[in-house]
Please model this.
Amino acid sequence: MIDTHCHIDLYPDPEKVIRECDVNGIITIGMTNLPSHFEVGHEHLLSSTKCRLALGMHPLFSQYHKDEFPLFVRNLPRTSYVGEIGLDFSKEGFASKELQVSTFIKVLEQVSGKKKILSLHSRRAENEVLNLLTEYKIKSAIFHWYSGPLSLVAKIAELGYYLSVNSAMINSTAGQKIIREIPLDRLLTETDGPFIIVAGRPVRPIDIQSIERGIASLLNKRPEEISENVHRNFRSLLSSLK
Model:
């Protein structure tokens, strides 16, 4: 099982989640919202066999970006994963639009030409995120919980980027339409835990198996086939780090 987007540090007991991933062989990429959060969490994952921590600069935390950016630059060599980063032009984030764009460009300038895998927030800003990725020649990126135009999914895939699917997408009509548009060779899985609730509790990486089953049901595939595709896609993504 592979969870490409999970906020391990936001669970009540992050170390319990890490242990669960290690014991069950669940490859998990932990997101952070700010570089200072990465600095706090990094040492706690060093001994993990399955979990890695990404360096983030979340667009909805833009009020901290100016002070945090030097920490982003300092910590970038410490990880192969960058996230959660991106843009949010929804009602929640629209007021900070200009600052978000400025920070995102600075992040992409730092990442461009380096062997990094990005996990992207793109709510109501999907075209802008995609255009900036291509402008800065970013090769390896995942659109996390994509909720944009169906017509853009094919372009994202054609440019070599991936889209990660979670249980909330599986359980919504709009999400199901998006899942059906994702080419199998561009599909990845995520939980976005702990923000999604399943069976009355926050979703955890151990729930990836049920996400694979949900995708399989939507696409009329066997769960094993979805799992094999996700593993193949993730291995391909990892090859970009070599």
Q: What stands out?
A: The two ends are 22 Å apart (CA to CA). The longest strand covers residues 81-86. The CA atoms of residues 72 and 152 lie 30 Å apart. Residues 223-239 form the longest helix (17 residues).
